[in-house]
Amino acid sequence: MKKIILSGLMALSLFASDKMLSKTEINTVLKSTPIYNQLASQIKSGKIKTKATKKDGFYIIELDTPKGKGLIYVTSNKKYTILGRVLKKNGEMLIPNFPKHANIIKNGVMFTFGKGNKEIYIVTDPECPFCRMMEREKRNLLAKDYRVHVILMPLPFHKYAKPMSYYILAAKTDQERAKRMQKTLLGGNEWKNFHPTKEQIKKFNAELAKAKKAANELGAQGTPSVYDKNFNPIPWPKLGDKK
Predict the structure, then answer these.
(1) Which of 50-54, 82-86, 228-232 has the lowest mean pLDDT?
(2) Can you give the CATH number for the domain in which 196 is found?
(3) Across the strands, what pairs with 81?
């Protein structure tokens, strides 16, 4: 019997293998899952695009849908489908390293701060509690050791994330946008006094649409999500760790 695991986190001991799948192979794997019938018509029509790899004992399938991207994990024996995250023993998320379109990602960068010689990209939401935690714990390190390219992604279930983002985007320079983001992440309420015009909202929404495309291209599953200069993910608590 096919089984599905609905789980946010799953720590596993994994073994190494890595192989890109053809479209035929992807469909064969998907047909073994309990969710195939929900996806089949949209995949056939092209509304959902797929790509996949076999890695560390899993088939990892990326679904590119009109609402964004998501990952499905299927065990190599095709008995289990996992919707959520699979974590390695070291706490890192098991994800595929699909080629990224650099122009889409760079077009979604709202501003850059920091004086370091290492580049990173951060997908963040000004109302996200974990983004606020990262701000408190890593801000000085980020500004000193990195050039940080910021992609704002206000999540729809955060009531004030979009007006907070508007306040940040209203700043004229990268330096001022970075300052406004920092104040907001640290609990500042200056954003409440900002009332954008219809023209400004239209402009800001266009920027946020580019940012959403960038976040989707990176495969961001939430906030904060951090990536190196080659767009490979970095667990944010490990920023600054000595290897």
Answers:
(1) 82-86
(2) 3.40.30.10
(3) 4, 74
